[in-house]
Known about the structure:
By secondary structure, the chain is an alpha/beta fold. It is built from 18 helices and eight strands. Helix content is 50%, strand content 8%. The longest helix has 24 residues, at 27-50.
Amino acid sequence: MNIGYACITRGPAAGRYRTCRKQNATPEHLTTLIKHNLTVLENMIEYNHHQKIRLFRMSSDMIPFGSDFQTNTLDWSTLFKSEFERIGKKIDAYQMRVSMHPGQYTVLNSPDSGVVERAVDDLVYHTQFMENLNLDATHKIILHIGGVYGDKETAIDRFVNTYEKLDDLIKKRLIIENDDRSYNIEEVIEISKLTGAPVVYDNLHHKINHSGSYGNDYDWVKKAAETWRKNDGRPKVHYSEQQIGGRVGSHSQSVSIDAFLEFYNAVSPLDIDIMLEVKDKNLSARKCLLATSTKLDIKELELEWARYKYSVLERSPAIYNEIRELLKDKEDYPVVTFYRLIENALNTELKTGPSINALEHVWGYVKNQVTDKEKEKFQLMKLASESELSKLVKAKAYVLKLAEKYDAAYLLQSLYFYL
């Protein structure tokens, strides 16, 4: 079983993808953007490998206007052939599984033929990207069924008819998922029987949108898994939690260790991969991997603590001290308690005293290297933060800039600047 995350990394990792407006999408500019984005992707693959994350959803945005063949006229497959081959070989060598997930406007069952044509173009683009990596059919493209348009039966027929006309290269990768509004897991499994497309079970979507007979996660994951063939690889599921106070269906900031383990223990007898859909991305993936690992090594928690410690200190000095005590026993592996405490700290509201205390601790990593002018600027920013806590963001950003300038390696791995 692999556990992974979607699209971008949080924290000091691999960079950010870049795009442009259509009017600026010249061949020269697009070439620069694509080269940058493929470099970011390669860095993310390396990061995931280092973190032992073997499941990763790649962003759809790596080739700007990739499915708009009038705007992006580059032969990017040929132009970046060596980059694709190198990245694909790394994915294969690292035994990593990648996927892509076209967005909400890629709708195969629309009654508008123009919308359908653009959706097919988008699938052509995603498939071409995957094929360029020379990866087998276990690396998938996920799609929702689409809209209802006042007549679900007819909408399903349109989806099936459009699916049947898709190129075989698309169909070998395409998998379908239940959503939180229109098509529940039972309906998607029925559509799978008509198309042959494997089914992805999404637990949060199922909680929101089900047929009335709710059922448990194990049963639905098992039924969805039965739609997968051997050459499709291990069945995938999507796991997410509702953001408290957010709109229905919005993903939580972080995965709750207790809620995830309840789900994991329920479905672990099944041979599946779990894609986390959560706002803190790789941070939750790492948490869930360590919580389910059979290799119990306190050093892994110590590495995590080095990254989280100042984010905890600025919110709760009491929890900071509690975690330090927890990790003193080098024969133990208190992973669940460790993450419970971190979750409690991160859910604590920032207050001036602890926040300034943490800022001063972090400042200590660079204060002996900075110039007098930099020291004066920091002190002014600290004073401003003491008067108005919202200004702490700028003070932290300035310390990060100094950490980069003076290569404060330990500090540069901290999540303090990102949480």
